[in-house]
Batch of 2 targets.
Target 1
Amino acid sequence: MENLTAKSFEIRQDILDIIYRAKAGHIGGDFSVCDILTALYYGQMNVSPENIHDPNRDRFVLSKGHSVEALYAVLASRGFFPKEDLKTVSQYNSKYIGHPNNKVNGIEMNSGSLGHGLSVCVGMALAGKMNNAPYRVYTVMGDGELAEGSVWEGAMAAGHYKLDNLTAVIDRNRLQISGSTEDVMTQDSQDDRWRSFGWYVLHAVGNDIRSLNAAFDKAKTIKGKPTMIIADTIKGYGVSFIQNSAPWHHKVPTEEEYKQATQELSQRRAQAI
Ligand SMILES: Cc1ncc(C[n+]2csc(CCOP(=O)(O)OP(=O)(O)O)c2C)c(N)n1
Ligand SMILES: [Mg+2]
């Protein structure tokens, strides 16, 4: 577990490098979701470069698609494509564009227009049920994303079809693009909302791999209901001046900021080893 925490800081460095090089990206949401993706791809999900074409592999959809740099960094670190490819993110003619697209090995669904991932996952999970397939389906949504009405159509259908092969995560960092979620559209009492749609609700400390693993393990045992994991996260987690700051939703670090962030990430990594 210590090693996975260290790994998450290594992955954050890759994310920082991608964004600094590309001069674009969504660093706040990337750092927020980094541990969730690390837990999923390093142990929780049955998906790897070897079984990516196996119909029985687990499926993942990054519904908050703007956090694609985190997904690229985790996929590269797990060997879905060469790490060298990360140097081309957001370059002209690169397939590694600023939101997920399924030309990239390991990416199941194009996303980025918020509010669509859950409904597509409901379709995948329902197909799994109809075909008696053993796979599980996972998605991560942002808390600001929950203001999209289509999320609630997916929520309703997942409860109706009792999709216990579906686990969704809310990256509950309490910020969205323009500030606090509670100012833009209140997102509290999520527990009651999801329960009323027929979901089993769990909580996790969303920047703690051990806590996330406990929640994912528990979700696998729930029968007759989809599971929602409300993961309390810190947007920008890992770098002092990026944490909990609305402008860092998609700010690009200056050279000075890049150096300081690199130093902090290497300290955090060393502490975790
Ligand atoms: C349909 C849609 N509307 C607007 C946007 C622009 N947008 C990109 S990120 C974002 C904020 C998302 O906030 P949240 O879901 O909380 O993500 P996080 O805090 O994890 O970055 C918005 C409004 C979008 N991508 N899709
Ligand atoms: Mg948010």
Target 2
Amino acid sequence: MATRQLHILLLFDLSKKISPDEYPELLKTEGWKDDAQLVNSLKRLGHKVRLFGLYDEIEPLMKELTENRPDMVFNLSEAAHNDRRFEPHIVALLELLGIKYTGAGPDALMISKDKGLSKKILAYHRVPVPKFVIASRSKPPRNLKRFQYPAFVKPLKLEASEGISQVSLASNEKDALERMRYIHEKLEADVIIEEFIDGRELYVGILGNERLTAFPPRELFFKEVPEGEPKFATYRAKWDDNYRERWGIDTGPAGRIPEELEEKIVETCKNAYRALGLKGYGRVDLRVKPNGEIYVIEVNPNPAIAKDDDFMMAAAKMGLDYDAVVARILNLA
Ligand SMILES: Nc1ncnc2c1ncn2[C@@H]1O[C@H](COP(=O)(O)OP(=O)(O)O)[C@@H](O)[C@H]1O
Ligand SMILES: [Mg+2]
């Protein structure tokens, strides 16, 4: 593989305005460890790295891109103006400027963010997804009588389990509508109501553009949650360390999966990745019922790639170390 030295701009988000002089200090903090790991890796790979934190001003980014035109942007940005709706716009800008970037393009970012639109496309491509109803604020359903319960009620376009709690699982129409209204009003967000898939939760990392490499599945475990209790990744289950510890919630290499089923899972995930037009790297989240039925829950372009994130842990299990994955992501761009 060619390893020409590249001038790389590492683009990331800021939730408030911070001067570039402060980046070195920022990168030393826990919340920025993935960025710091990446900077070090890019340097180890022999590249030149500049950093740019994007908050609410696009002009300084334009200035950086034109005055210090990089060979490539390593894109860790997920928002502009502190708003995730603008995630696709940032790479759209790079496209207009003819600057190469890592990961997914604007179309895949836009489609994947919408848990309804993406499921419509997946269903067209025969990728199995839960049954669903979209409940927008402008046109909320008056009843959900014919929906199959239990249902799972979640924001249509949010991420990181925002808006997902124990009451997201609704055992009847009344509870589903109540949760829908809560999300409409309190989070000011549209809603998707899905068939609740009771089963194992798996994450499959994928690397590639046309030819895809799937990593061995990771699994979300709930070791201390009693048998028979519903298990899913609420906001607390993702972000509250005490809560995670109490209920034994953690990811790890997937437990035993029959060979035939694993092949089917990998095929399904690759189909999902292709159907939504992902590039570079992605992670497909799915659930598998005890009878072996597979359901894609979510396709994540540009997933988290810190060393201890599922994507990198799964790559490591395949013998691809961190730098090797970073190099592959650059090559794919
Ligand atoms: N249809 C469903 N059936 C069962 N669990 C679900 C369903 N949809 C979401 N979940 C649970 O909620 C979590 C978050 O949902 P997801 O759609 O991945 O949103 P986010 O973008 O917030 O990660 C999932 O990891 C899973 O545990
Ligand atoms: Mg998810």
